[in-house]
From TrEMBL, chain A:
This is ATP-binding protein. It comes from the Bacteria. Gene3D superfamilies: Histidine kinase-like ATPase, C-terminal domain. It comes from Tardiphaga robiniae.
TrEMBL record, chain B:
InterPro entries: Methyltransf_35. It comes from the Bacteria. This is Uncharacterized protein. The lineage of its organism: Bacteria, Pseudomonadati, Pseudomonadota, Alphaproteobacteria, Hyphomicrobiales. It comes from Tardiphaga robiniae. Pfam families: Methyltransf_35 (PF20553).
Amino acid sequence: MADNGNGISRANANPSKSFFIAMLTRDIDLIDCILDLLDNSVDGIGEAARRANVQLDPDHPLQGSTVEISFDRDSFQIADASGGIPIGIAEDYAFRFGRPDDAPELKDGTIGLYGIGMKRAIFKMGNVVAMQSSTGTESFSLNLNVDEWRKDPQVKEIDQDHELVEWSFPLREVVRAGTAVPAGTSIKITELYEGIWRQFDNPTFAERLRRIVSRDYAFILSRGLIVNVNGVRIDPVMPVMRVSDDFAPFKHVETDDGVTIEITVGLADPPPEDTSATARNPDSGVYGWYVVCNDRVVVSADKSSDTGWGVKPVPAWHPQYIGFMGVVRFSSAEPRKLPWKTTKRDVESSNTFYQRALPIMMRATKKLTDYTNNRRADSKRLKKIEKAAKQVPVSRVTANEQMRLPITSTNDLVRIEYTREAADVTAAAQALGLVGSSPAEVGIQTFEYFFKREVTR
Amino acid sequence: MTKRSFEAINYMLRPNKNVERKLFVATLKKLHSQFDIPNYRYVGFGSMWFSDFILMHRVFNICDLVTIENQKSRQKRVEFNKPFACISVRMDEASVALGEVLDDKKPSIVWLDYDGPLKNAVTGDLETAVGAMSSGSMLLVSVNALVDQLRGHKADDEEVSPEAYLADICDDEGLLKCGNQLTLNDFPLLAAKIIHDRIKAAVLEKQPGCEYIPIWSYRYADGATMVTVGGMIANSADRTKLEDSGVLSLSVATGLTIFDIELPILTEKEKRALDKLLPSAGKLDWKKLEFELRPSEVEAYQRFYLEYPIFGELAA
């Protein structure tokens, strides 16, 4: 830029489109992008109800709403019949990169808050976007070729020293009243990038997406929303805890500064007998801590120091703790107070409310890890008690300031250890009809086989 | 006593398996027009019999052959029985050996011929193999496809349902809903699909730029029902070569569709009687035979009479 002679100049700090596209899409994986689009659909339902002044059923506010997600090698599509995006919002806010300061205040526990989800998802997946949205009265469509958009700088030179950034997306078929397009939003992305279609074409992808939606959307699905992936409806998988006369999960609820914190900790399943490296414990993926913000699971089955594991006095995660279930829920009408990051896949551990919750979470964790230590000596008896307790969804666990656990007793125990050829142990496991062939399990079963037949009690 | 399979079966005396190997060789011959098969490496589970190794060396003069053997107590027997000097024996678990053997990226044909249940094929061996292979390489997997293998399993002293067991070993909850396919005749199709899907998933995840092209889907039974499925890992250049080779126009290279090999067990005399009528432009008339065979058996024999093996006892 020109020097105006007084020693003061101006350095151009305008953003570049390529940078935005690359940066936005780098830190998020495909499934989280899809969830971001799903978040928008959920928020759309609430927005539409507020605009229409409709009171939603407090227990099932999303009843009757369906989101269809479909994908294959060639395209991705998400469509809902919820509120749609009003023209004014589309023109001024919806396509901005980041929620502008003068945007209308977020209300009533929304889950989309950073204003980048939709753009990020589009940029991540493919080059050609066809979008249509209707509120039932107003509608528009948007057709975007990302590569062409990227190459057009959309910067206007005002004079030699100044340029004006005017990024925009072209809205077409704008109808401001009486549209014939039914209410809802659909986004279709084609010319998928190679890294994306290779995932959509992968036979395991749909199952992975199903698993994640059923878990991370469990609370939202149980409020009545229907999500179909390639035509198959997804059922919620809610964290559960064992409840009986012997078992009561710990539950703590507090509200502070407009944020409700609800912590529930208990045992979902009996801990395993065998915790060796070769043990068959396939489901360890469901146990651990869940962090939930406005009903959206942002961290699931966490076993890291983020949720207190390995932070004294809580021990680091070990397969011995399989069966552990902890859920911490933060709810607020002001979503920016909650401890989530932009990808909604991570907890903001420096968040005030999270820091408040963590020590309580850790105390309850410690209590349960101590129980799994003590129960080892008496695991046969305790396993029966554990199995007899009913699994109750976390949302239906009643408040209990104390965790109730069965009393553990100690017996005299010895440990048997020996080594045999792997092929023989596998053959023995087969003969025993064991699922998997954990050597420790083979050892236990062969001992019991002998004991039952040759040792009288 | 439960015998290990190599103690229980003489691998050479399985006519359907024998024919399967020959059909596989026929497809390789077709591929040979575009791919330098003699300079491939062949990796398999030779056990004590090495039937597939002998074919690969004889027919294509493949001289880089590796057998993987995990039963250390049989090492000397394996070494003793290997028919050619150019076969090297790797005593190790397949999941370890495959990664190391294939790591140099030499184009390879890998046949993971598990004589056991599907469980053996879903422990990560094929994923390890795919991860280490290069474009143009081929992978085949054979497993027992008897539905009974899913029954009678226990976990925590409780019976596990067949679909829960299958979902567990495959680590795929989607299979919990496959109950109606767990029948004698449908499970082999499901097992074949599971393995094709796993190879495809592994290629998409571990081989950027490459895709999986299914070539083989055989079902056969010499006693227990088995399936053999496989295909090629190909970048776009190898994909074009594969298309140009015309291999997929062969009737015995059906891609994802199951091809049944159902040969009757015949006496030598019966075989010779049938051979005298072949080749024949039309279908052989089973009613005109001097002995009883089902129409399907006659038809199957007519299809594969050239490949049908003769087993005989040799005088000492």
